Amino acid sequence: MARLTSDFLIIGGGIIGINLALEARRRFPDARVMLIDKESGFGEHASGRNSGVLHAGFYYTANSLKARLTKEGNQRLTEFCVERDLGINRCGKLVVAKEASELPVLDELLDRAQHNGVDLQKITEAEAKEIEPRVRTYRHALFSPSTASVDPGEVMRAFVSNAKQVGVNLLGNTQYQGTRDGVVKTSQGSISSGYVINAAGLYADKIARDFGFSEHYQILPFKGLYLYADDKSKPLRTNVYPVPDLRNPFLGVHHTVTLDGHTKIGPTAIPCFWREHYRGLENFNFSEFVEVIGRETELFIRNDFGFRKLALDEMRKMFRSRIVSLATDLVSDIQLAHYTRWGAPGIRAQLLDTRTRKLEMDFKMEGDQRSFHILNAVSPAFTCAMSFSEYAFECIGELIE
Fold it and tell me: What is the pLDDT of residue 182?
């Protein structure tokens, strides 16, 4: 194609990229806004494979971007679904403790919720059983009334429709191939852009390096799998989560109530061997394999942030018996025979700080007067998409002034 021009070029058509395009149109009505994605559709990776849970915002420390953006993001995305008559299951969430040693973590989560202005209620075991009779908890639990479930595909389609309506130029089957002298090269030709925004998920770090960023960061991919209950399984009234390990960004195996009222358990957080390592040798890339395996081997040997135990524990969750066993710690009357179908795998584009060899816990962005790069937009980024895009443009505004 002939060289195209845009005032804002967004790379990556997930929920963050689409909302960044919408925000660009809102702030700059006369600007030419273009979004490219290497897939034929939009939201084909993490966004479309998301758990569908709208998080409330109580897991995150008070000074973090996640804390700042999740509460508002939950409210706005809930309103978005209601206004457009999209499906939403306002089933809430219980966080339960297995033993006395986990009670201080419940108190820490309650304290974070209060700092973040999030409605979170500390309740007794009896009160928890009134919400979900089969729940198992030690003495206390936490209840989050604003946690909800949606269909991520339906939400993505609504945002894409909005982007088309306001004049965003959406180009699928257009893969980023490099940049030079203010021109972005793609599989469909070159694009001249006034400002580039990189929201490429699993490839955000590689693209950022072309612009002089992500010097000390690398994406470390983790595969998330959910195991679905069949129609014979007794439904749950609410999501049920364990007390998390606050040292890492994963929330542990939990029960998720889907939009249609079914239950799934998971997810896993299995280290991948290349970036789009969904199944078998699908999307195998030798250079990525060498890069990712090299980094994981180093982490495994050094056991940075407890990676060795994490990797081994997560790989065991590939077995149905193991993941169902963990789920029985949270809810009674769970039968292995009722959990037979694995859902479509999703891959978490988790950022690793190569200096500290630790996983980045918060959202991470870098940029200058020419470009802006979303390096770490993992959970709860789906929940935060609308508030996240506004914050990103506040940062961009300061950079280009």
Answer: 86
Residues of the chain with pLDDT under 70: 1-2
What is the reported pTM?
0.96
Place of tokens 């969904």: 278
On whether the CB atoms of residues 150 and 89 are closer than 8 A, the answer is yes
Task: Note every long-range contact of 295-303, with CB atoms under 8 Å and residues 24 or more positions apart, other chains counting.
Answer: 295/218, 295/220, 295/352, 296/220, 296/271, 298/357, 299/357, 302/357
Q: Could you tell me where the DSSP H helices lie in 231-363?
A: 286-302, 307-316, 320-327
Q: Are 351 and 241 in contact (CB under 8 A)?
A: no
d(CA 364, CA 362): 6
What pLDDT, on the 0 to 100 scale, is given for residue 10? 98
Residue that is written with structure tokens 């699928």 in the block: 172
Token representation of residue 38: 């290497």
For strands 53-54 and 263-266, give the pairing. unpaired
Residue 1 confidence (pLDDT): 53
How many whole angstroms separate alpha carbon 92 and alpha carbon 53? 10
365: closest CA among 62, 47, 104, 66?
A: 66
Query: What confidence tens digit (pLDDT) does each residue in 133-172 have?
Result: 999 999 999 999 999 999 999 999 999 999 999 999 999 9
| pLDDT tens sequence across 37-73 | 999 999 999 999 999 999 999 999 998 999 999 999 9
Cα atoms in the Cβ-side hemisphere of radius 13 Å centred on 285: 12
Cβ atoms of 171 and 40 closer than 8 Å: no
Residue 46: strand, helix, or coil:
coil
Comparing CA positions, the residue from 140, 111, 134 lying closest to residue 246 is 111
Contacts of 91 (CB under 8 A, 6+ apart): 147, 148, 149, 237, 238, 239, 257
Strand ranges inside 236-393, DSSP E: 239-242, 254-257, 263-266, 270-271, 339-342, 346-353, 358-359, 364-367, 371-376
Amino acid at site 347: I
Identity at 296, one-letter amino acid code: E
Distance CA 151, CA 12 (A): 20
